[in-house]
Amino acid sequence: MSAQQPEDVYSHGHHESVVRAHASRTAENSAAFVIPHLTPGASVLDVGCGPGSITCDFAGLVSPGKSRGWTARPR
Predict the structure, then answer these.
(1) pTM of the complete model
(2) How far apart are CA 58 and CA 68, in angstroms?
């Protein structure tokens, strides 16, 4: 279900294996408890979204609504 593109980059100093594990997460396997609350036209803010794989799934579930992801960068 994830629409994340291969050229999307997530680099916050994590080892490649951690980034790969985070990128494999989907709404179904990591946020199923939220799915019943998402309806077409809703807006979603995913704080701490990491590489955004779950956020992309949320976007598909709330379309034509908007899904935004935000992750703080280390200082």
Answers:
(1) 0.72
(2) 9
